[in-house]
Amino acid sequence: MYNLIGAGLIVIGGGIGLGQIGGKAMEGIARQPEAAGKIQTAMIIIGALLEGLAFGALILGK
Amino acid sequence: METLLNDFSPGLFAMQIVILIILLFLMKKFAWKPILNSLEERETGIEDALLAAENAKKEMQNLQADNERLIKEARAERDAMMKEARDIRDNMIAEAKEDAKEVTASLIEKAQASIAQEKQAALAELKKNVAELSIGIAESVIKKELSSKQDQLDLVEGILKDVTLN
Amino acid sequence: MKVAKKTIKFLAIAVIALITTTSFASISGNADQNHNVQNHDGGQVNTQKEVTDYIQHHLKDSHDFTFFSYTSEEGERKHFGFSLPVILWSSEGLVTFMSSEFHHNDDGHVIVEKNGLKFAKIHSKIYELNSDAATVSFDETHHATNAHKVLDFSITKSVVGILLASLLMFLGFSALAKQYKTREIPKGLGRALEPLVIYVRDEIARPNIGEKKYKKFMGFLLTVFFFIWILNLLGLTPLGFNVTGQIAVTLALALFTLVIYIFNGSKDFWAHTLWMPGVPYILRPILAIIELTGFILIKPFSLLVRLFANITAGHFVVMSLIALMVTMKEAFGPVASTGMSLVLALFIMVIEVLVAFLQAFIFTMLSSLFIGMAVEEHEHH
Description:
B: mainly alpha, C: alpha+beta, four-stranded antiparallel sheet, three-stranded antiparallel sheet, transport (chain A), hydrolase (chain A)
């Protein structure tokens, strides 16, 4: 039960983080479309780091 | 975490490590090394070719510049030669004119001189003629003197009239 | 001449494949009619609980390779596939037998006796029974009380998957390597593989490790990238591999990265990790501890967990959506539930194909990033 609450919290946090990353990346791309490739790569890396964090927490709690 | 640890299989882990080491070794030896080497070779080849093309282009440009310079020089030379020729022609014409002038002048001079001579000669002739005439007159006068004085005078006058009329 | 050579090669491979399959294969039709059909890979899957159990079973490694199974009209359970060799390091040393001896039983009811030792398979794990026990007895949390796990070096389904992926990789890329001997630009499959190699080199290794040092790590990065990618894609085929969703496999991969960047760390890297310059002396040991745990524990852990969790979650979602067909049948009728599960599963499958690439990319990318951090040499300020 508490596990599930924790998982929900992790998902909320991760979702906010991913939203921030994605949103800012979109803004960046809109502002400088020629840098889209670089921004995308950086976005994916940071997203992956966040994902690792969230999954780590999920798995530790499982 | 607990289920995860429970799921963890040390045997599979060991197998994976062994297989991965073998795979790494094999792939490195038989695949990655030759692939990466030939890729690099090809890339350096392309780079060299590009560089060579660039050089050739530069050389071409140099050649073109050279050609242009040569053409310019030739044109300048031609212009200079033309100018020289024109000058020479002008000079020649001027000299010819000068010569012609001199020649005509001398001719005129000569002509004038000969005219003067002729005149002199003519005058001399005239003088001789006049003298002969006067002598003739004198002769006839002398011939007629013997008849009468009046006659003589009339004769002289008549002759003089004739003379002045001449 | 060339064609002949190719044919011979192909024949050789086919023969080897045939021999291995026939030696492993014992298409076991009537093997277990007298056993309880209520085990995890058997029986019809109808209820929520059975679906969950089935998915859980799939996510685990298995000791035999089953393509599909069904119950015949006589109530007899039939499995199509082949069994794989079981290799155990037990208390008496090495023990080997074929997995068909378990008769697809997965709850410890079938006991195999070898070399005077008794083995049982419970939830895809092989247990060795204590010498005085005849059957496995369970406590209330379904843990075996009179048996213990043995070191299991079996050629499991995952190992078959690893071997298959390795073989595919080796054949594909050594063929590509061979092509370069005769031609400048490869043709056929090589033309598709070459840009991928260049992609890994130019987009992953070069920018992250640096122009000077990336060459040394290319072998590892390329191997890991294609290994993970092929295995992820194999996991999406109906063969039902779940290799990159095995924590043992991802742990091994992450450990390789760890070992590589620890042993290639430059002097600057260690100086910055252990005795951070430009920080008050009191803080330096604390920072050293933080940095060390970051490099030794957290980074490899996030690497291994990310890959494991992504693939597991992907398989779980796809299988759950396929199971909608069964679980929603009563609520929506067979046509609607099948259509819904088809559409949703197709949609998620497309995403999973993307994830298969993305996870391979991210694993390689982060590995090269960490390696880049370790090998970087700072110019001294």
